[in-house]
Amino acid sequence: MGFVRAVIKNSGGKILMIYNAKFDHWNFPGGKIEGGETPLDAVRRETKEEVNLTLENVRPLFEKDVYFKNLDAAPRGYFFAASADLGNLKLNEPDKITRAEFLGREEIARIPNPSNAVRAWMEETE
Length: 126
Fold this sequence. Notes:
Layout: E1 2-8, E2 15-20, E3 25-27, E4 30-32, H1 39-51, E5 55-65, E6 76-84, E7 97-103, H2 105-110, H3 116-124
């Protein structure tokens, strides 16, 4: 089992963050890798499903095992940097994702309830 996250910057260098009301935390767009999918395929699919963006210029940032208390496991996370036409941004899962904001690194460091994936990104990109 693994998961993916897309780190998408706007022209001002701020990063797209989404608030997941289901889990009460901020995260990057992304989700679980489905059977037979590559991490690249999964990050493209999940980003389109969640925020209606088609990723461009996708490149790997890092991989890391990230512990999730609710799973009592540490699945492998695949983090990607990407760009997208941000004019297409739309919350496609309003029952789960209730907000999207572009935040700078210092703002991300101060957000309440960051996901474990966000914490891992902060550690890896210091």
